[in-house]
Structures
1.
Amino acid sequence: MKHSRSGACWKRTYGGAVLPERAEDKSVCISEREVTNQAVKDRIGAFAAGLVADGETIFIDASSTSLFVAKHLKARKDITVITNAERVVLELCDEEGVRVICTGGALRKKNLSYVGETAEKLIRTGFYADKVFFSCCGISQKFGIFDAVEAEANIKKAMFASSKQTVLLCDSSKFEKLGFPKLADFEAVQTIITDRPPDAAWRQMFEKLHIDVLIAE
């Protein structure tokens, strides 16, 4: 076993060296994800923010795409944002027209997000929202919607259970990508916002499930 410059451990294999997989956390840190496909995420975030009406209460998850929703909610009036994301809290904390509620819980330092049973229970029993905005690491026509970290997936499931409308923010690079764990079937989603029109097979599936597909161009 050797160490890389970043401090990670490398495991010897017959074909070379690989980083040992950590089943509890395979995600990339939030600062790296925020700058990946940044322009696309910004378009999706701006489009999603346009769906939020004054007076509404919304959940925003701790994904990098959802952070761009928060960026476009500034200067809005009479909106309540419930989130487990420290970055969303910091983005909106100075906005007089936006009430921000943080779920609390155990801090995932890599993602600057709060997870765990305490946060899940509070979301399920203490709050109700008009909409939840969330993202994922991939979607598959055959298998559904996937996340990268089980603890984050459990928070999102709690948000689904306490929301009137579920909005998936999913850029085209995530189509037909698998991950672990599975987050949900498509029946859990009412609206998908993406950056490009999906192909015919995807459109047929979304129409069959009565899922609205909105293109952030």
2.
Amino acid sequence: MSRRTLIILLFVSLALNLFVIGAATGAFVLGERMHRRTMEPRGGPAMLVAAQALPDEEREAYRKALRAQAGAVGPKLRESHKIRREAWGRLGADPLDAKGIAADLDHARALETGARGDVDHAILEFAEHLPAADRARLGQALAQPMRHGGHGDPRERPPAPPPQP
């Protein structure tokens, strides 16, 4: 084997070793991040994250109440989104019917606000039957800003309350 071939093989071996070490290090770091992320409480709307503040049996009852309410308000929200999409879709029409579009957007907003109000009332009805301490924890959890999916960096928001045993 010539000296030149030996030097080429040495550099190829060095490059391959660096690649393997980099890939292993990257996989380890990424794996650690993914593991930490799955161990943290999930983010989302405050009303869903708030369930973590309740004891197990009440947490399940709360989630069941929210699921039932979601089924009731889902059609209102879908109708609201449909009206809003159709209204914005007419923005390019000539002549522009600004008053008609505004009226449709107002109607869509009223439907959405009504649906949100229905959910708020369902949570309130659920909370009426909780002991005072659990009701206080639920209220504190509901008052927290959204952790993920909202605006800004989720790491700058306060943590959700710890789950109760």
3.
Amino acid sequence: MKKLTLTFLLFSLSTLSLTAQKKVNDIIFIVDELRTTWDIEALKMEKYDGMREYCHSKPYRNKILDLLDQIHHYDTTLYYTVSDKYDVSSDPEAKETLADIMTLETVYTNPNFVAFLKKECEKVIHIEKNMAKKDSGGFDKDISALEEELIEYIDAVTERVDLVDEHIHHLKELDPKALKPAKKKEKEDASGF
């Protein structure tokens, strides 16, 4: 009985290890995970309290910036993989995927997003200063306006991240392990291209 239990335990551990190794190099799995993580953080950052945390907590800010770096890295990697593997003119899903990645990598670059968040942090600080003053009032309207801006911009980013993730599930013959490393230019150019 002990041998059977030990054999089963070893088999289970080796299966888990192989599954974990598979997912580390699986671009579809990675993009799914990044999408889920971004969707959770985006919901938090669309609210005043989430934005306050971003503005005042360096560890949280670094977590968000690292997540954005990962998203852009894998989008760039996916861009080159799809570009190399598909004849874009004959595969509409590949064409749409590349267009959505291009929008994410050119309009919603990390520097653009960070600049947007910096402006929003300035507004958070302004609201906090007004809240500290007695009888200042009107900060509910300021918070509402801030959240509207956050929702508009963050939802646009989220929509692109979600679209890219949805596209890759529809690309026929995309080998999940067909990761092509992003070009060196990615490090030099803020857009990733």
